[in-house]
Each structure stands twice: as C-alpha cells, then as structure tokens.
Design a protein that fits this description.
3 domains, Rossmann fold, alpha/beta, Heat Shock Protein 90
Length: 360
Amino acid sequence: MATLRKDSFEVCGDVAQTPEEFTSRIQSTNYDLILADYNLPEWRGTEALDILCRENLDIPLIVVTGYLGEEKAVDYIKQGATDCVLKDRLARLPASVRRALEEKRLRDQRRQSEEELAQKIAELARSNEELEQFAYVASHDLQEPLRMIANYTQLLAERYRGKLDEQADKYISYSVDGAMRMQALIHDLLKFSRVGKAQVEPRTTECRAVVEQAVKNLRAAIQESGAVVNWNGLPVVMADPAQLTQVFQNLIANAIKFHGAETPVIQIDAEKKEPDWVLTVSDNGIGIPVESQEDIFVIFRRLHTRTEYPGNGIGLSICKKIIERHGGRIWTEAQAKPGCCFKFTLPIEPLSKNGQETHA
C-alpha cells in the first residue's frame, strides 16, 4: 500500500485473512483491485481466483509473493491473475496496477459495447418483425377494397368505352391501369412479407432436384424464349427446398426476361468454400450497371421502365431475404463476357434455431 501511495495512488482497502472473509467482503463491496499474498497462514491468496470465478466477478488480481518460480507465475496468470510481483521488486507494482486497471477498463468498455450492440440487434429484429407484420396485414387487408375498385373500373371501361368522349375513355383507361398495377404491387408486397413469416425448415436438399423443379415451373417462358439452362455438379445442401426453388426460379426468370439479342443461356455452378457452398447463376443477358449492383436487391427498385420490362422489382428482394434467412448472402459479380452473374452462399452445416451453425 505504501509503495502505491508513493506513486501518487489514492489507496484505501480491506484485509481478508480467510476465504470466508474474502467472500463476504467482495459480496458487499465493489473493489477496483485485489492484491493477494501467495501464501497466508490459513489459505493461499491465489485461491481468491476460484472465489472470484465462482462469484462471477471481474476484478483484477495481482499476486504478491516473496518467491515464486517462473513456471508457477505463468500458471497463475493462465488461471486469471493479472500479474505476479515479487516483494523484493515492489517498485514495479505501480506499473502492474496501472496495467491491470487499464485492462479492466477496456474489458468493461468492450462488455458495454457488446451489450449495447446486442440490445440494438434485438431492437432491430423486433422492429423488422413489426414491420413485416404491418406489411402482411396492410397488404392482406387492402386486397379486397382494391379488388372492388379494379372490378368496377373494368366494368366502366367495358360498358362506356366509346360512348363518352375520347378524354373520358383515356381517364377510364388510366384508372383501370392504375388499379391493376396497385393490385400487382399489393400482391408482391404480400408475397414478400410471407417470406419473412414462413418458418425456415432446412433439411438435406439436392440442388439438382430444386433446379429441375424451378425449370419445370418456368417451362412456358423457357419454351417461348428458347432459353437454355445448364448446370454442373450441384451439391446437396441444408436448405428449405420450397424456398430454395423460389430463389433459383426468380434468378432464372430474370435471366430470361432481361436477355439480349442472343438466345438466353443460363449456367448454374457450385463451389465449396468453407464454411459455405457458393452457388452461381450466370447468363448472357443485358447485364447490370456496376453502380446499380446494390440497388437491385431493394424491394420495388427497378432499373427499367415498365414499358421496357414488366414487373415490380420484387424477385431479387425475395431472393435476398430467403438466402439471408438461411444464413447466407447474395451478390452480383462482374464477368468478362456480357451478361449477369449472381452468387449466393449456403452454409455447409445446418443452422440451429438461434441462427448459429451447428457442428456434429
């Protein structure tokens, strides 16, 4: 204590001669530091490490002793002691105390940051869940009144087209088109919100079978466009088969829709990169500008007008949501040849209920 006071420390403390006394004191008082003598009459001060661990307390402990071999000192530091200081070298005690207090400050700071981060993550998850619930309820409840609007505007168009002036026909046409587009948007919003509400049930899934099902679902579009879909060496993954089918179906459908002058050619490959499978869907279409490669995954974000290409810009948002809920990520990657290249990952190991990978 005198050594620390000489070095400008303001010191006050208590002495504990037994394990019981030590336990009582740390339970009733918040200490900044513990100086433990290696060998006391009734107990060894190093036993304080076990007591601190049992009480789940993070208090720096420095062992002060007359003699302690290097091997024993290293052993105590491994057990949790901050430092070991010999009594004939007490001049280094102030530096050891400063280091111990600084390390404790950094640990507290890190712990607080981790707690704040965990709280923000929980708040964000709750906010996202509420937003998804709102989107689901809003889109579901809006369908019926919107259906009535669309039906009656279509009836107006059928009954009065050509019977009023040209301007009236134009207004009715705008109303029908607007109602139909709103219906499509609401339908897509409901589809997007259902992805968030659906339970992910990963199981052993053959990607080849999933791709074959996606191609089968798109048979009409493939036949109409003459598209060719090739795949090689697709793996068995842990995924929800229905949701993974939707991912491949959306990516293949996009490749067909946004094709160039040539016949669409879609190539699907896979590569194992621990701890994930990386799956690739590439095509020879019109491609995506570099500056828009992040925007395409935003819901309802379109790069083209509806007159150029139909759709509401929902497919890639759904793909992103599904892949992220499987513990993976999806992105676009530049390629030398014309076209677009989508990549996404799926964990090799299955995910546990809390979203962490499980290992046998």
